Amino acid sequence: MPNDATPDAADAELLAGAWLALSRYRHLLVDLGATFAAAGHELYLVGGSVRDALLGRDYTDLDFTTDARPEQMLKFLRGWGDALWDTGIDFGTIGVGKDGYRLEITTFRSDSYDQVTRNPQVRFGDSLDEDLVRRDFTVNAMAVRIGEDGPAEFCDPLGGLAALRAKVLDTPSAPQVSFGDDPLRMLRAARFVSQLGFTVAPRVLEALLDMAPQLERITAERVAAELDKLLTGADPVAGVDLMVQTGLGDVVLPEVGQMRMAIDEHHQHKDVYWHSLTVLRQAVDLEDDGPDLVLRWAALLHDIGKPDTRKHESDGGVSFHHHEVVGAKMARKRMRALKYSKQMVDDVSQLVYLHLRFHGYADSTGTGRWTDSAVRRYVTDAGPLLTRLHKLVRADCTTRNKRRAARLQANYDDLEARIAELAEKEDLQRVRPDLDGNEIMRILDIPAGPQVGQAWKYLKELRLDRGPLEHDEAVAELREWWNAQQA
């Protein structure tokens, strides 16, 4: 992959690695490059796919830019691709399906923005350089020319390779211009810090501090998509901290930054904010099969109720009574504002609500263990979130007191063993009354209605308290309850 200038040894190694990474797509790139060349047009692989090839990261998205206009691409790609999508044609983008890959090919752009609504006035450009300078960061403003024989030339007019080697995020144009065009790019900087392990250039940091309020121009859906990518990155703590320290968090997730005002009651951390980031990091370490977005959101938000429940006690300590209840409501409100699905909102808020319950499992001596009934209720309330709740509770142990940390983990080991032991005897994942609704109506000789629901609820509570009952015993308990209701 030749370059306009002779690369030094470090750059040559990166370029060689990128060439090797692109070789897996060689047949596709040769075929596509030949198609564009035959039509008399230029074609460049661009953006994140070039960056990730240089970094040796896995990538599946292939984005291209070209001098061909959308209507021209439609003509010569219609016979080449397995499928075409023109949903982005107003922005110059044609989607192409080929051999199981989905490609996006966009005409060179040279947009202008009103700096108020972030609505671009779409203007097609005439050169690659013009297109690259309007991109978010220099590490995403590198390109590879695709010719008839595939990858042919590495193009880096804005110093993206040097920035990538230095692991620095900088903007192609002045950051005030770039972020003014699209304020979401500021949040994207935090996302790339999380995903790539990069830092931001000094002038970018200055612009973030000055321009953070402009994020209010961005829709909740776009913000949530960036937050999800940030949280599922390799180092979400770094991304969250940049967001909070620059004021971006004040706009999109103010509850997290507000935790800096609440000192942890155990005084083991600088404040509840850093405790929460530690919990997030430890939750990531406990994941089994890649990033778990629900777990990570719950870890980040689990203590957001503490600032509103902080109380200075007479003995000089600090308490946060019922912060899990308040925090669950706050998590629900924030995630609804970000337009998350009902399931996502329910799952995260329920984990926040339940994260503290385990701390009543045993006292400091390990005695006072829960009854079987309490264990059943713990499992039932967690439902399908039980595995995540296990991880969240374990991650929430951030004390530096090794003896206390060992005791907490041992107590939770004991609880999990209790759950497994009960699960061998009864189906804890589907705790149901020993009699169903039809049996209740037949035994009590009552029609369907609220009374059946009340009886069902009573039997459910009985089942949680005492475990499975024999059929005759359940019938006797039901009749006794019913008679008491009629008295």
Question: What does it look like?
Answer:
It is a single chain. This protein is an alpha+beta fold and 487 residues long. The protein has four domains: 9-166, Beta Polymerase, domain 2; 170-252, Hydrophobic Seed Protein; 267-429; 433-486. It is 53% helix and 10% strand. The strands form four sheets. A seven-stranded mixed sheet has the order 3-4-5-2-1-8-9. It has a two-stranded antiparallel ribbon with strand order 6-7. β3 and β4 form a beta hairpin. The longest helix is centred in the last third of the chain and has 24 residues, at 402-425. It is elongated and about 90 Å long. It starts with 8 loop residues before the first helix and ends with a helix.
Name the descriptors:
24 helices; disordered N terminus; Beta Polymerase, domain 2; 53% helix; Hydrophobic Seed Protein; elongated; 13 strands
Q: Ends: how far apart?
A: 89 Å
Q: From the helix content, strand content and strand pairing, which structural class follows?
A: alpha+beta
How would you sum up the global shape? elongated
Largest sheet, spatial ordering of strands: 3-4-5-2-1-8-9
Q: Calculate Rg over CA atoms.
A: 29 Å
EC number: 2.7.7.19
Domain HD: 272-374
Keywords: Coiled coil, Magnesium, Metal-binding, Nucleotide-binding, Nucleotidyltransferase, Transferase, tRNA processing
Organism: Mycolicibacterium fluoranthenivorans
